[in-house]
Amino acid sequence: MLRVRQFLPLFLALLISSAAYAAALTLTSSSVDQLGMGEGNVDRYYVRVLSASITVNSNAFNNQITGGSVTVASTVPGTYVVTITVTTSAGTRTYTTTTTLSTTPATITFTITPLSYTDPGVTISVRADPA
Amino acid sequence: MRWIAALLLIFSISVTFIIFSFIAAYSVYLPVAAVDALAVKPEMSYSLGKNDVAGDRNEVRSVDLSVSGSTVTGATVRFYKRTPGNYIVRTTVTLLDGNGNTISTGTACNFYTGTGTRTATITSFTPPVSIDSVYRVNVVIQRVGSC
Q1: Which is nearest to B26 in space by CA: A19, A27, A16?
Q2: Which residues in chain B touch residue A6, judged by CB atoms under 8 angstroms apart?
Q3: Chain A, 29-88: which have a CB under 8 Å from a chain B CB?
Q4: Shared-domain flag, residues A12 and A30
């Protein structure tokens, strides 16, 4: 009985250290900056969307958006997953592609399931995440 | 006394083990090249306006920002003028930051005729801002009596 009690702290220590080790290994790229900016020269990027355009199925007032194009650049060249979200009061459409971005703007043309272009307008969001 | 000494020894070994575990865990080799670039501004959005007002039915089709270096210097807006007739249209492009605050504005005011796709050119933004500060671009077309 005495031996079990003696080794209880050791068992606890093993348990805690295992948990600590597992927690430390769950470091992801997005949390590296928690180590502080001085820990390494990890690139930090800005997405620059220089233009947004839509194509419509007609010039009638009750027309629909069928696609469009955006011109995108990133301050850090690389391969990105670009997600384009088109939103009007009638709904939302999303288009995703993987492409190479650099400081030179690149045009991405997209098509979507027709979406009513309603008053007061349309919002086109462009998001780029490292692939 | 002997069992107290034994307990202290086990406790010391345990604490040392925990400390070494932490050191080992946080010393995992993580080359910078293997770390994805961190997003400071991963997203931008454009809001293109559409009017459903009698006598002012216009809709924005596109907007292109001009930059010099990283400074936004102008914009070209293409819109569809649906309401027939000849009248003045004010085109306003507003640049907003990540908190939704307006940081710069550019305006063009022109006389247009008929219906169809028309272009408005904004030649300056006040104050000049970096594209990296812009999170949202709002484009509004509005019929006005005078510029």
Answers
A1: A27
A2: 3, 6-7, 10
A3: 29-30, 32-33, 40-54, 56, 59, 61, 68, 71, 75-76, 78
A4: yes
Architecture of domain B45-144: Sandwich (2.60)
What does the domain layout of chain B look like in residue ranges? 2-34, 45-144
| A55 shares a domain with A33 | no
Is any Cβ of chain A less than 8 angstroms from the Cβ of B56? no
Same domain, A74 and A16: no
> Do residue A13 and residue A51 come from a single domain?
no
Q: Which residue of B has its CA nearest to A77?
A: B37
Half-sphere exposure (Cβ direction) of B107: Cα atoms closer than 13 Å = 9
Question: From the candidates B57, B62, B115, which should be mutated to test the interface with A, based on the most A CB atoms within 10 A?
Answer: B62
Q: How many domains does chain A have?
A: 2
- pLDDT (tens, 9 = 90+) of chain B, 147 residues, equals 677 777 777 777 777 767 766 677 666 666 666 677 788 999 999 999 999 888 899 999 999 999 999 999 999 999 999 999 999 999 999 999 999 999 999 999 999 999 999 999 999 999 999 999 999 999 999 999 998
What is the ipTM metric for this complex?
0.78
Tokens representing B12 are 């010391």
User: For residue B135, which residues of chain A lie inside 8 Å, CB to CB?
Assistant: none
Other C-beta atoms closer than 10 Å to the C-beta of A77 total: 15
C-alpha A113: how far from its chain's center? Answer: 22
Answer yes or no: do A10 and A58 share one domain: no
Task: Find the residue in B nearest to A35 (Cα).
Answer: B26
- For B103-121, b where at least 16 C-beta lie within 10 A, e where not — what string? bbebbbeeebeeeeebebe
Residue B127: both structure tokens together: 């104050």
Parent domain of A23: 2-39
Judge if A51 and A10 occupy the same domain: no
Q: Report the residue from B26, B48, B131 with minimal CB separation from A24.
A: B26
